[in-house]
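Lecture notes, continued. The same structure-token format from the folding unit now serves as the input rather than the output. Read the line below as a description of shape only.
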């Protein structure tokens, strides 16, 4: 694995991983968004030939990140799953039993439609709208965020949903799109953890921080 990049946000040390997640050092928490587990199985069930190894590789990357950072908490900022239960989720259930010491908190996304008893049986704490820890809050859709805390101050918000991406221009008028971490003044948008997703191009403003994920490395983009 390529080295993570340290980023300080509100005096908190965050490690940006090329595997599309953030390790929050103070809380020993791995922050991820848009894993869409079960999506490939959902497509295959509909007759679209998507190889199952896509799901297995995403799950293995998650396990590796949890072990690499020795995370005690997994914060999933929405769309941990993609649709109704299918055979792929049986593999997730097996993994969950193997790493039962990791606490999972899921802020519900628009694709998280499994039954409450399924989440309970997998020992996943489901938060309907927003999770707040210290001066950070987590909510799947940035448009629905309510960052104000009880003291009338603004928390820093972590969200997902849009699968942010950035264009990098090369020689000969070449350009490519890459997933990215997008840190604005009051919020961060995480890249989709799953490789089986597209990207939505962002338009960062001056003095905002963007980190593209290129060839398993983190590259800081000047804005």
């Amino acid at each position: 694995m390529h080295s993570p990049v340290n980023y300080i946000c509100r005096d908190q040390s965050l490690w940006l991983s090329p595997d599309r997640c953030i390790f929050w050092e103070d809380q020993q928490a791995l922050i991820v968004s848009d894993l869409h587990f079960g999506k490939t199985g959902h497509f295959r069930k509909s007759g679209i030939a998507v190889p199952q190894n896509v799901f297995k590789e995403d799950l293995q990357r998650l396990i590796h990140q949890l072990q690499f950072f020795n995370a005690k908490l997994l914060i999933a900022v929405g769309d941990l799953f993609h649709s109704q239960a299918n055979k792929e989720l049986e593999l997730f259930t097996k993994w969950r039993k193997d790493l039962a010491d990791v606490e999972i908190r899921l802020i519900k996304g628009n694709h998280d439609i499994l039954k409450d008893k399924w989440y309970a049986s997998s020992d996943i704490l489901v938060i309907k709208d927003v999770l707040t820890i210290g001066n950070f809050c987590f909510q799947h859709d940035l448009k629905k965020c309510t960052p104000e805390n009880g003291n009338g101050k603004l928390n820093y918000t972590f969200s997902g949903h849009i699968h942010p991406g950035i264009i990098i221009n090369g020689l000969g008028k070449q350009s490519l799109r890459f997933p990215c971490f997008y840190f604005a003044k009051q919020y961060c948008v995480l890249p989709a953890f799953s490789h089986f997703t597209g990207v939505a191009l962002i338009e960062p403003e001056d003095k905002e921080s963007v980190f593209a994920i290129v060839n398993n490395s983190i590259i800081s983009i000047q804005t």
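Point for the exam: Residues 53-69 form the longest helix (17 residues).
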